[in-house]
Specification:
Length: 163
């Protein structure tokens, strides 16, 4: 009993901790796909949109991702990062809204750039698309050891809304 009990307790704690991390990973994947799908149907600033511009559009999509993650991406979560990108074919346009733009949300601040979240996402470069990548830290623990993990979820969807 004295030899088996510590091993069984460590195994049980490891199973519970692993299950919690896996549940968080599934939540991140679902949130990223939900956000990409929402963004694909939300018009970027146009006569069809109530949003003032691309920055507001990116923020609205990031808000949906955060809510969809069931508290796994709330403010204060360790290692939290939400990247939302509207990828325009060729990367630039003369239009005020049709160009590649990215929002990265962390606890520190929202930052904007023109680099997509995913360099190669499997879509043709001639396709408008929405990319969402989310990350957070998690810890896998057992009685005798622990390991820090970075959990990542991503979603990419073809842009379908009228822009």
């Amino acid at each position: 009993m004295a030899l088996c009990l510590p091993v069984l307790v460590a195994l049980l704690v490891g199973i519970v901790s692993g299950g919690t991390s896996y549940s968080r990973k599934i939540s991140l994947d679902t949130a990223a796909r939900d956000g990409a799908r929402y963004g694909a149907t939300l018009p970027v600033a146009s006569p069809y949109s109530t949003l003032a511009g691309t920055n507001q559009w990116l923020s609205a999509v990031a808000d949906v991702v955060e809510k969809s993650a069931l508290n796994d991406l709330k403010t204060g979560t360790a290692g939290r990062s939400i990247c939302v990108a509207y990828v325009y074919p060729g990367g630039t346009s003369t239009s005020t809204t049709d160009y590649t733009k990215t929002l990265v949300r962390t606890d520190s601040a929202d930052t904007y750039s023109s680099n997509p979240c995913i360099a190669s996402d499997g879509f043709s470069n001639a396709t408008r698309r929405i990319q969402v990548v989310v990350q957070r830290s998690s810890t896998l623990e057992a009685v005798f050891f622990s390991s820090n993990l970075t959990l990542t979820g991503q979603g990419v969807t073809k842009f379908e809304a009228t822009s």
